[in-house]
Amino acid sequence: HRSVLSEIEVLQSIYLDELSVNQRDEGGWTVSLVLYPSTAEDCLSQFVRLTLTVDLDSQYPYSSPCISIHNPRGLSDDKLLSLQRSLQIEAESCIGTPVLYQLIERAKEILTESNIPHGNCVICLYGFKEGEVFTKTSCYHYFHSHCLGRYITHSEMELKDRERELEEDKTRDRTEEEDLAVVCPVCREPLTYDLDALLSSPAPVFTQQEDAVIGGEFKKKWAALQKILEQQKEKGGVIDPEAESNRFLIHINEVNPTWIFKKCILFGSVVEHCVSSAKDRGFDSQGT
Fold this sequence. Notes:
Blueprint: H1 2-15, E1 19-23, E2 29-35, E3 49-56, E4 66-73, H2 77-93, H3 100-113, E5 134-136, E6 142-144, H4 145-168, H5 195-200, H6 208-234, H7 241-245, H8 257-280
Antiparallel strand pairs: 1-2, 2-3, 3-4, 5-6
């Protein structure tokens, strides 16, 4: 127990407030730390991050700690599995000796080696290439800078239209203000940005081969989605908002022939019934 406390105190002296330590009621400890790649404190060059959590039972260091990774950003699933497996193997190979500092630094090394954004720009759907200019948001999502600039330009136009609608809405409660801001297209967090700098960045260049591949994949997916849409329409699973809003609306300036025909039949039946009743009571067709 004393050896664990000593190890944790050493870690706290190194990582200061960045380290979170909790002692569990049933015994053992949970140690967690948000890790970034080593970029000489240049935050703008940090494109990946994760929270490393290490659970220690009451037998540590004579039992292997349990390692888990939370809130990763910019890392593929394969890279995360590989990282966790590598750390677990290292922990198991060091049973009997303090290993927390070693695990933390090994995780930082792997993050530094993997310090490039993973995946595609969700705006243009193309991947990132070496030499292209891209932007990391505060929520750790990545876009080609030029693509993000175009997205923000469009979003700002939409916000102006929305502001105009709110101003013209006489039924709106003025005390209830709606927060309008350009948000991340992935997680919807508000964005901070320099629009001029983003738009002045060079646009990504796509080869004809990439266009053909993505174009073909898009057409296949579109065709498949269209089939699903038609099936849903046939089964009544898709609601037309305009048709639904007019469902119980009576148009007085439109004449429905079927409706008129039914009314004429009904009126004729009523007249015939009245005449028949009058005759039964001794009245002729002239009402005398």
